[in-house]
Amino acid sequence: IAGITQAPTSQILAAGRRMTLRCTQDMRHNAMYWYRQDLGLGLRLIHYSNTAGTTGKGEVPDGYSVSRANTDDFPLTLASAVPSQTSVYFCASRMGPNTEAFFGQGTRLTVV
Amino acid sequence: KQEVTQIPAALSVPEGENLVLNCSFTDSAIYNLQWFRQDPGKGLTSLLLIQSSQREQTSGRLNASLDKSSGRSTLYIAASQPGDSATYLCAVTLSNTGKLIFGQGTTLQVKP
Fold this sequence. Notes:
Chain A is an all-beta fold. Helices cover 0% and strands 48% of the residues of chain A. In chain A, strands 2, 4, 5, 6, 9, 10 and 11 form a seven-stranded mixed beta sheet that branches. In chain A, strands 1-3-8-7 form a four-stranded antiparallel beta sheet, with no helix packed on it.
């Protein structure tokens, strides 16, 4: 049982480049989330999706976009990376708002 | 806007002590509150989920309480062990959107 898989595990990216972080879950969860975690700032919600075909903005959505074409996948795209997007990114999923959320192992992204 | 606060930011205790971690939130319109554990460089592991209609949940040496009307939750750890050393995060699910919003965490060190 894989659970939630994030890829890549880590990446160094030149500023201005486009990058897609992948998140796949095999639990048929309806809801999925993307967070960034920065020292001293905790986990901040970037975008979320309550069900396939819908997405919503979180606390820090600027510079990021998401899509939810199917239940299993929730990719996060940085259209033109900037150094302030250097962070650890976590994907999470759960069946619905009344259930436990589960997290992937994270992607460490460095924008130089 | 929902604000989630965890106090203290860091805590150091000798092995064997019972301890309490605090989590407060400003908007009581929540589905539930979830406590997580995060080890350095790792993803988040779910510890306990308390629904808004519940007062407490227990798992082994952990007991979490929820007072929705006052916007507070506590995580009680009995007979702490060095293996409990980690960062503990609380998160609330907003009733109107399903967003999962985190506090900044409490970093716990249990000394042998």
